[in-house]
Amino acid sequence: MIIYLSIIESEEDKSKFEQLYITYKQTMFYVANRILRDKYLSEDVVHQAFLRIIDNLNKIDKIDCHKTKGFIVIIVEHIAIDFYRKRKHENSISFDEVGIYIEDVKNKSKFILNEIEEAILKLPINYSIVLRLKYSQGYTNKEISEILRISEENVRQRLVRGRNKLTESLSEGSEKSYE
What residues does the RNA polymerase sigma factor 70 region 4 type domain cover (predicted)? Predict the structure, then answer.
């Protein structure tokens, strides 16, 4: 943690980061390990996530709230999936393993409030992450592009495609319920 604190300038931000570190380190490791199933890579993901959190520390108001936890989990998921894809190119591993994680989140999450959120979790992860950051967490396209380190145009495209897929998914679900 000393390495992270040396990067942060203000004492207030250092205190905020310490609280984040203590509160979410285990959760972050769990999320990364559920995707990667590799203890050492998961530790690398958590490290990268903490560095990204430091870059976005000004976006975190309250430490122990649903929005902060969601923000951190999305960052870890995104980085873990990037690691997974890099490893996939090196080894030939099935992408279905990531699907197991998403199903586990869908089945065990306390935060699925309705069928729209459930449908969002069923979307491809690129669309799901952007939609969740935009509509659940309330970030702007510019903030999302900074968090995910993609262009604003890419964010806009993912939002459009994600909404279209979500609309298709929800309309298919409503047709099935009327049959």
Answer: 114-166
